[in-house]
Amino acid sequence: MGDFPLLLAPMEDVSDPPFRAVCKANGADLMYTEFISSEGLIRSAVKSLKKLDIFEYERPIGIQIFGSEIDSMVEAAIIATQAKPELIDINYGCPVKAVACKGAGAGILQDIPKMVRMTEAIVKATHLPVTVKTRLGWDDKTKNVVDAAERLQDIGIEALTIHGRTRVQMYKGEADWTLIGEIKSNPRMRIPVFGNGDVDTPEKAMQNKLLYGVDGIMIGRASIGYPWIFREMKHYFATGEMMDPPTHQERVDTCRTHLMESLKWKGDVLGILEMRRHYHAYFKGYPNFKPFRERLVTTMNPNEVISILDEIAFVFSGALFEPVEA
After folding, report:
1. Which of 9, 107, 175, 192 could form a disulfide with 164 if both were Cys (CB 3.0 to 4.6 A apart)?
2. Contact 165, 175 (CB under 8 A)
3. Which residues of the chain are under the pLDDT cut of 50?
4. Strand 216-219 relative to strand 193-196: parallel, antiparallel, unpaired?
């Protein structure tokens, strides 16, 4: 994966195989599935089982699971292991109410002893490496991730990713990387520590690498509609210079690839419907794009979508049609 890997964050309704395909093509080193409900897996829910789909071109890849019951999480880890990923990742970071307020995701940050017991049980249940993604704590008064990191390492996890916000913050305010740096500089910590949160430019990636000494960076929202973020960061690390942004044709070609992978994996109906959330992001900042977007999100004909994308490439190919800030 290189000396300083760039990870694609697991994102619900985003980081599915079609999206992972375009991120891998643009330099993502390690990717994860969308988070998968342990209860869904052990009940063989169709949606949960579908998220286990992984493909050779994606490797290395991790399957991420979440849940509040230790027995269910252990069973889910065993099921996920059978899908043959490179690792199993445990989600202790999701802040959404439906997850966290049931004691799963970031909810378990209110019960660190249970977090440790659950993690230890999962480590023992699989031969694969187990990693953890979490947050600083539940709120500003309980930023307990420094203590949790040592305890998780001691029971056998092989890497830790930390998002620089508390659960209460959700995705608001600025991510605080100081505790991430404190964990990385802790002489007791031997495992890789990855940072996550607000890294949306190559300059920020380099700054956080230098300031906090992390072993790699996980990219989430900045990659939505912009999978080129990975190649741009790698180019900046190697040369100290910014790459030119993707051309209009590259944007259209990548969006088309994403669409074709979506149709192949989900079928024509779901492939069309679930692709709709991505069009705005791919062409963010394009002037007068609304009419194109309205057509893209109303047609159910794959050929028509491709035709509209070709039209976008043609209309915005001139120098007068550079993207503007949205």
Report:
1. 175
2. yes
3. 319-321, 324, 326
4. parallel
Q: Which amino acid is at 223?
A: S
Evaluate whether 81 touches 128 at the Cβ level (below 8 Å).
yes
Q: Is 101 a catalytic residue?
A: no
Nearest of 139, 65, 131, 30 to residue 95 by alpha carbon:
139
Task: Determine phi and psi for 29, rounding to 5 degrees.
Answer: -85, -40
Q: Which of 60, 15, 73, 6 is nearest to 221 (CA)?
A: 15
Q: How far apart are CA 221 and CA 130, in angstroms?
A: 24
Over residues 53-84, the pLDDT tens digits come to 999 999 999 999 999 999 999 999 999 999 99
Euclidean distance between CA atoms 306 and 113, whole angstroms: 52
Q: Which two tokens stand for residue 110?
A: 């209110």
Task: Determine which one of 23, 94, 101, 255 is catalytic.
Answer: 94
Q: State how far the Cα of 14 lies from the Cα of 216, in Å rounded to an integer.
A: 21
Q: Locate tokens 């890789």: which residue?
A: 192
Of how many residues is the chain composed?
Answer: 326
Distance CA 137, CA 123 (A): 22
- Report pLDDT digits (tens) over 22-46: 999 999 999 999 999 999 999 989 9
| 3-class secondary structure per residue, the chain | CCCCCEEECCCCCCCCHHHHHHHHHCCCCEEECCCEEHHHHHCCCHHHHHCCCCCHHHCCEEEEEECCCHHHHHHHHHHHHCCCCCEEEEEECCCCHHHHCCCCHHHHHHCHHHHHHHHHHHHHHCCCCEEEEEECCCCCCCCCHHHHHHHHHHCCCCEEEEECCCCCCCCCCCCCCHHHHHHHHCCCCCCCEEEECCCCCHHHHHHHHHHHCCCEEEECHHHCCCCCHHHHHHHHHHHCCCCCCCCHHHHHHHHHHHHHHHHHHHHHHHHHHHHHHHHHHHCCCCCCCHHHHHHHCCCCCHHHHHHHHHHHHHHCCCHHHCCCCC
Instruction: Give the residue carrying structure tokens 């990713």.
Output: 161
Q: What is the pLDDT of residue 121?
A: 98
